[in-house]
Each structure stands twice: as structure tokens, then as C-alpha cells.
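Now for our specimen.

. . .
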Amino acid sequence: MGWAISLGFAALAMGGLALSGRMTRLALMITAAALLIALAGYGWQGSPDMAGAPVSRQV
């Protein structure tokens, strides 16, 4: 489910920027590259397929 939400937000952001007409093609490509790097980082560090395991903190 995390991947669907992440891809949805990325598509929404990219679509909104592309439809606004205020960005050049180069700016859109750089934005798309940044979004893809963010999704790769989420997949690498976020561990979206692992179940959550809350841990109580000891003081």
C-alpha cells in the first residue's frame, strides 16, 4: 500500500507541474529525476514491504 501512495503522490506532483505550463521541459525532466531518486530512497530505506513493529522506549 505504501508504494501505491508514494507513486500516486509522485504522479500527482508531476502531473500538476506539467499541466501548469510554467516549467520548461528541462525543469520537468530534473523534477522527474528528483522524484525517481526519492522513490528509490523510499524503497531502499523505507522498507515499505515490512510490517511495523512498535517498540517501547526504556528510560
Notes: The mean pLDDT is 87. The two ends are 34 Å apart (CA to CA). DSSP finds two helices and no strands in the chain.
